């Protein structure tokens, strides 16, 4: 299996419901030891930080065209804890309800993320944001630049 590292970050201005964006960086080293990288980012007119954190992960996983062993690095506890603390399993088992019986937010994106990760072995790793981690800072720059851009898409759930 190809080993891939995916770095992600999401941003929103005026969270909740302001403009936002995501940034994703994929990296893998080929058999010759050459590093390959690809960046993704996009901005939205009206969204939330958590939706952008999820989109960053989804876009990274959906970019993979074969099953991979993925180390996914995010500064979002919302994303990493959902898997590392097994919240997602409970939500699915409880028909997308939290332990407190309220509806899980962003179900559309959680379902898309689960589909995107199906064929991969994914390890979710949390890093402290805005703490000098080079790839996290790079993703933050991609996300905030996208959020501040002129060509913003509609986040249909938020409209």
Helix content: 25-40%
Distance between the ends: 40 Å
Instruction: Give me the CATH architecture, please.
Output: 2-Layer Sandwich
Helical stretch count? 5
Overall tally of domains: 1
Structural class: alpha/beta
Strand content: 25-35%
| CATH topology description | Nucleotidyltransferase, domain 5
What is the 3D shape? globular
Query: On the 0-100 scale, what is the average pLDDT?
Result: 95
Strand ordering within the main sheet: 3-2-1-4-5
Count all strands and give the number.
Answer: 5
Rg calc: 15 Å
Top-tier CATH class: Alpha Beta
Write the element-wise H/E pattern from the N-terminal end onward: EEEHEHHHEH
Which descriptors apply to this entry?
159 residues; alpha/beta; Nucleotidyltransferase, domain 5; five-stranded mixed beta sheet; 5 helices; 5 strands; 34% helix
């Amino acid at each position: 299996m190809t080993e891939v590292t995916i770095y992600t970050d999401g941003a929103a201005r005026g969270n909740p419901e302001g403009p936002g964006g995501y940034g994703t960086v994929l990296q893998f080293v080929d058999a010759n030891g050459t590093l390959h990288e690809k960046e993704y980012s996009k901005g939205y007119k009206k969204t939330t930080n958590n939706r952008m954190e999820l989109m960053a992960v989804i876009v990274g996983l959906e970019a993979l065209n074969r099953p991979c062993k993925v180390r996914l690095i995010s500064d979002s506890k919302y994303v990493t804890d959902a898997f590392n603390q097994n919240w997602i399993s409970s939500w699915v088992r409880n028909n997308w309800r939290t332990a407190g019986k309220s509806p899980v937010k962003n179900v559309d994106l959680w379902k898309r993320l689960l589909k995107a990760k199906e064929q991969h072995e994914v390890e979710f790793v949390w890093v402290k944001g805005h703490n000098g981690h080079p790839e996290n800072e790079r993703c933050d720059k991609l996300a905030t630049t996208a959020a501040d851009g002129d060509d913003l898409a509609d986040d249909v759930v938020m409209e």
